[in-house]
Queue: 3 jobs
Job 1
Amino acid sequence: MHAIALHYLQEVAHHGSIRKAAQALNVASSAVNRQVLKLEQELGNKLFDRMTGGVRLTPAGEILLRHVRDTLQSYDRAVAGIDGLRGLRSGHVRIATLDSLMLHVLPDVLGGFATRYPAVTLSVAAEAPAEVLRQVQAGEADIGLTFAAATGTALSEVASIAAPVGAVMSAQHPLAGRALLGFDELLPYPAVVQQSTLPTSVSAGTGYAEFRERIKPRFVSNDIDFIKRMLLRGLGIGFYTQLAFREEIGTGVLVWVPLDSPGLAGLRVGLFVPTRRTLTPACHALVSAIAQSLNDGHALQAAPAAAATRAAP
């Protein structure tokens, strides 16, 4: 079996589609399909069930995918161990994270880390909160940053910090001067919504779940930068932590108002690693750097005092 075919197998399984995997790999769909078919012929088993709109792993495909992931992880650990004998800190670390952390938090931490460990390469992917946890547990990511949640014994929470969700709006919005907002007060106003970026209703409370069902968004997007631009234009209210909007809140062009919801007020963002897999030296060093940033409170600290004053009544 060729390594490239196994790599294509991982991508198809991840995307659930040969076409989407091909786009991510920047190759022709026919090339990806040909490699998958080649694997199936060599093994004498179907690896994917072809369905309308995508593919799904068969039991045989799941077994092979687990083997591929375990093999690659063992190889990475071996390479890191060999490098460690030479006093190096090389390797590759995969991070799955909330997209809001990619704007101000992770760039600061990763910038310093990259300077200290120039031989380490990193990949950072924005994912939905539950998807972050799934990828770390499945071995598709080494480190996860997402809303804290019960994870059982498969994952460990290394560090966390308070990250309440509130209402983000233009400083000129009629509700911008409020100190606290209830769900019913927000319903008459247009919303700007980013799908699959907020915590589950289980962790946020039933009131939040009902509210999400009732709001009528003016804009829906999967791009946090687009969301920010719409909020700056006063075209709606968003429901987020302060993480992606710290600069705008600090300068007073956007306002963050807490919501009258114990579930949303008590949310935390956590750093998660797998419990049953040994971290490579590079991964361990990065986990320590991120954990220190969280514990110090610098990376995720609340908006500057000027912003808090702006939101007061």
Job 2
Amino acid sequence: MAANPARLSAQDSWDVTGLVYLWGASIGGETTTGQSVDVSFSDIVETLDFGLMGSLEARRSGWAVFGDAIYLKISDSGTALVGPGIPASPDIEVQGFVFTGGVGYDFVDNGRTRLNGFGGLRFLNLDTDANISSPGGSRRISGNLDNLDAILGLRGTQELADRWALNYYLDVGAGDSEVTWQAALAFDYRINNRWSVNFGYRHLAWDVDNSAVLSRISFSGPFVGAKYQF
């Protein structure tokens, strides 16, 4: 009976964990005209102006609230031909923001295995600006894509050894998109009670029906990050 108040107090407190990571993702997809999109991670790094990736999770009494955000700003310039022997100099800037957030509850939590079911939202924003200069003048092209989708999913952790754990994640949803889904598999290596290293593979995709340019878009690749428990 003397231990119960302490245990209840621990259950009522919030456990907060933050993760800052680098996702070596390539960009794939398909345009509305049927052309494939394939941009490698090395191409993204060469044209990257700024990028920020991180997630935050708060847990209390079996409940979990989490959010994951990705921001990228990419720009490039070069020379292309718009006609026989007619050069053009395109300047292109792309800004992208993806946020996934949700609230879930632990259906299983026995100390070594945790399974959390959740519902939430995913927001995608892509802004594209291109200024094409040629001997005949210049032309500016702009495009914007905003998609908000509801998602349902499962996420969990399986303890493997004293310092190792396996994390898994799967969600699917729809709304402004015909369908969006995400899957990830990662390992945690605990350095101490506060810090751990997280690495794995992640895929995130949309089938969109409200864009004049893209019909599908996806991000896929390995990631590595540092996790801190507050």
Job 3
Amino acid sequence: MLSAASLIGISCIAITLFRNLYAVIATQATIGITGVIFGPSIAAISLGMAGHNRLALRVGRNEIFNHAGNVSAAVLASLVGYFIARRWIFYMVAVMAIPTIISALLIKEEDIDHSLARGAKPKDDSDGERISSFTVLLTDRRISTFALVVTLFHIANAAMLPLAGQYLAYGKTKGATL
């Protein structure tokens, strides 16, 4: 997570420095690829810290903070873009990577059960400890089906919100970020 947050922050700054098409595509690809690390990492850390019995409660709390942070970041980005400059939205994301890194560094390694974080059954389970291999991701049909459905959803739906935002902001250069 530390390197992912760092790469996203660096990429956002790079977007403002290198304004040619290929640089923007490269930085956006870097942001997209590294951005997918956060969800599984947070889920694994949460499982390793809370265990199977308390995972649902922990994930619920995580999502509350996630959504509150998303709303706060959107409001802050719109204000920064409106009152300072639109490119400062990218600097703001880079600055916000710093608390992400600090938060990850504050997690004590001894507080995480690394076997549980990798999906092992609890030690008191009668089957004993068993961790699935990485090949399960490629061979389990349920995972492949889920990945396909999520991909199709994002192709069909995820781009609609930015497009709607662009349509609403069309012709409003000063207030577009708001």
